[in-house]
Every structure is written in structure tokens, then in C-alpha cells.
Amino acid sequence: MTPELEFTDRVERVEPSATLAISNLAAELEADGVDIVDLSVGEPDFPTPENVVEAGKAALDAGHTGYTPSNGIPELKEAIVEKLAGDGLEYGTDEIIVTPGGKQALYETFQALVDDGDEVVLLDPAWVSYEAMAKLAGGELSRVDLSGSGFQLEPALDDLAEAVSDDTELLVINSPSNPSGAVFSDSALEGVRDLAVDHDVTVISDEIYDAVTYDTEQTSLGSLEGMDGRTVTINGFSKAYSMTGWRLGYLAAPEPLVEQAGKLHSHSVSCAANFVQHAGVEALENADAAVTEMCEAFEERRDMLVDLFAEHGKDVPVPDGAFYMMLPVDSDDQAWCEGAIEDAHVATVPGSAFGTPGYARLSYAASEERLREGVDRLADGGYL
After folding, report:
1. Do β-strands 249-252 and 96-99 pair in parallel, antiparallel, or remain unpaired?
2. Longest dimension (CA), the chain
3. In the chain, N or C: fewer CB atoms in 10 Å?
4. Residue 1's pLDDT band (boundaries 50, 70, 90)?
5. d(CA 279, CA 60)
6. Please, which residues have CB within 8 angstroms of residue 251's CB and are 6 or more apart in sequence?
7. Looking at the predicted structure, is the pLDDT value of residue 329 above 90?
8. What is the CA angle 284-268-229, rounded to 5?
9. In this structure, what DSSP letter does residue 218 have?
10. Could you give the CA distance from residue 144 to residue 141 in angstroms, rounded to a whole number?
11. Would you say the pTM of this structure is higher than 0.85?
């Protein structure tokens, strides 16, 4: 007889990732021979830049297959510091932890800062894993809805001011945003700064999409006066360099936080993969042209989708960056997304997974041909 397992409260507080759940359903249908236009996952359809791949191979050939210093190899940490300096951020190599993916950097930050009952403020729509990470750390959530302001923060600063107080432990800012693609204005970030300083709040600035912007430039929150000592800057290589499967990210933070997060890092993942870190150096130093090429393609796809939806009478908020779009759908967005994948064979993610019901998130990190096919299928199936 198999004994009944008892699970911890912290793991039962969270649900599986909604984006990966949709992706898994798409994979199951595809395994049954169904052609799915998968617009659910934020994974660029471009290969990793060739020079980055070659750098990874060269690192393997050179024997870089063992453990590295837990917080990262010196060459990569130095390259990260230089990259951040270009964004107006002053960090030293002792303020960097290199992680297996940006997700791990976020997880370590939540675990280091959030205790049972601590308040974490999220801006909705918010990437699905922020909520899970806050709950796993024992945090309590307070949410600010940006859907009424076109997903921009500046018009909602009064709402944010009502949510943030002296009891707030952590505020999470993601610009460019997943899932809306919004890039927050400098005025909005200055409003965040003022609140953070007034209430002594630490802010996570998740900048994983910072290289993927179109009509506006992204400002790094930690570059604002008064934010250098209270900002944790999160970034990685998955999106900008099309390195999702390489699993490489990093956090930059004041040294005391790095010391505490480093404990969790050393006792869990030990270090990011050695040869992958060497590929990361090459990406930061010699892959700008490839990033520009991908961004130009994403912008063309964005513009195409906006026009295609307009032809079907759908007015969508135009993303400033990243490669996601929030499509207004039925109030029951979960049912809409389930129907879209089952009937039209188009995979999207319910907006309710991001705290914003009534929308579906589409990723346009897919070819123009597949994007057109997806819109046609949704229209033919009565979903537009």
C-alpha cells in the first residue's frame, strides 16, 4: 500500500505555471497530429546567435565543464557590470549573482527578502510566477490594476500610492512588461522612486526584456537618484539573445542582499553551467547586431498583428516592447482560450493568469506566416 504523502502549506499555496500548462496542452495535441499555432510561450523563433553557440562549443572543448565560483565566473560578472554601467547602473562584481535563468534570480530575491505575512505589491497584468514566488516565501499580495490605463503605470500612480505603505516589503516592476509589452515612462518610474523612498521599500526591477523595445527607450529603475541602494535588478539572456534553453540570468543588488541570496544559491543550484557562462560573455560583448535584427522583426510582427486585428474590429493596446500582446476577449477568458485551442487550434494564455481577466496574451515570437494563420483561424472559428 502506497503511503499518503503530506505536502507543505507553501507548495500547496501555488498553482502550476499557466503559460507552461497551455504549452503542455499544445504539445499533447501536436503529439496527436493536430497542427497548433502556438502563441502561448515567450520563446523567440530565432536560433541563438552563431557566435554565441560557437563560444559555448569552444568552452566545452576547452574543458569548462566543472563547477565555477558559486556566484559566477569573473569574466561574466565583469561583462555584466559593464553592461549595467551602460544602463546607468553602478554595480561591482561583488554585487552580482549569475543564475541558471532569470527565474532563479527572482526566486532567490523573493526568498531573501519576503517573510511570512510580508506585503508584496504587484502591477497587474503581472507575469504569472511573481505571485507564486511571493506565496512560496509566505508573502501576502496587494495588486494594482493597470488595465484601465492602457497597461501604462503613469496614469495609475495614485492607485499605486494607495497600495504602497510602510508595511510594504517589496514592489515588483517589470518594464518592458510581460504580458502587456508596456514600457513605463520616466515619470512613472520617478513616481515609483518617490514611493519607495518615502516608505523605505525595496523594489525588484525585472528588465529581462530591456533590449526588446520599439517606439521608446527603457530606463533602468536603479539608475534614478535614490534607488541604487534599494533596487534589485534582474536580467538574463533568454529573450534578448534567444537563449531560452541555455538557462542563464543574473541579479544585481546591494552586497548585503547578495550575501544572503548567495546562501540559497550555493545550497540549491551551486552555480550556473560553466560553459554556458562563457557563452554569456560572448553574447554581452559581440551579439548586438543579432539583437537588433530580432527586434526589428518583432516590431514588424507587432505592427502586422495590430493591423490584422483592426481589420476584424479588434482594437488592441499597442505594445512598446517585449513580444506580447493583450487581446481583448470574452469576460470568461479561460473558456475563450480553451475554446481557441480546441476549436481553432490556436494556443494563447488567459489574461486572468496574469491578474487581468477579459484578455488573452499572445506571443508574437513566431513567424509572420504562423501569426497570420493564427489570426485567420481565430476569425474563422468565431473568436474575433
Report:
1. antiparallel
2. 62
3. N
4. low
5. 10
6. 96, 97, 99, 105, 106, 108, 109, 232, 233, 234, 258, 261
7. yes
8. 55
9. P
10. 10
11. yes
